[in-house]
Amino acid sequence: MSIRDLASRLRAKAGQLPPGPVPLATLAEAHGGAWQASLLVLLAAPCLLPIPGVGSVLSVGLAVLGLLLCSAHRQDLPPRLGRLHLPHEGASRSLALLARFYDFIYRLTRPRMTTLAGPSTRWWLGPMTLLMAVLIFLPIPFGNVLPAVSLMLAGVALAAKDGLLMLVSLGVGAGALATSGLLLALGWQACMALVGLAA
């Protein structure tokens, strides 16, 4: 299924959801196997916004997703998570927003180097997601941006089977790790300097 087909599928499903609260399992099924890719996008995108606390909360969800990706044999949403519900309006809106996002992004992607964006990526995408979740959780000024962009690109790469985009995601993730490490080192030196002055 191409990313454009996925957008059409999500748009159709948004108008076909049953009334009342919608189980997460129903939303995962609507993606036709691409739920992990969409969840990466949905959880990472709000972390780009300068809203206090958003990164700390969503990083927990990203860490859980990272653990799921680390499981080589798990393709389906765990039953316990699948039984959780979202309000009907929120679920429908999420599917419609994802459809519009995929409609916008499909022109920039295409299936290529598919080995890098297929099932074999799970062994390193899981640890990468966990690491980016930790960086998002840490109280580093503007430290959410690069990790969130990296995970969004990874989600799009999975949905589009675009290995080149996955490589870009890895590059952005490496940049996020280097930048965060540098900022932490500078912050530590500043703290040590202040302690020295106080003494």
TrEMBL record:
Pfam families in UniProt: ExoD
Domain of life, per lineage: Bacteria
Keyword terms, alphabetized: Membrane, Transmembrane, Transmembrane helix
Membrane-spanning parts: 48-70, 130-158, 164-186
UniProt cross-references to PANTHER family, sorted A to Z: EXOPOLYSACCHARIDE SYNTHESIS PROTEIN
Protein name per Swiss-Prot or TrEMBL: Exopolysaccharide biosynthesis protein exod
Organism taxonomic ancestry: Bacteria, Pseudomonadati, Pseudomonadota, Betaproteobacteria, Burkholderiales
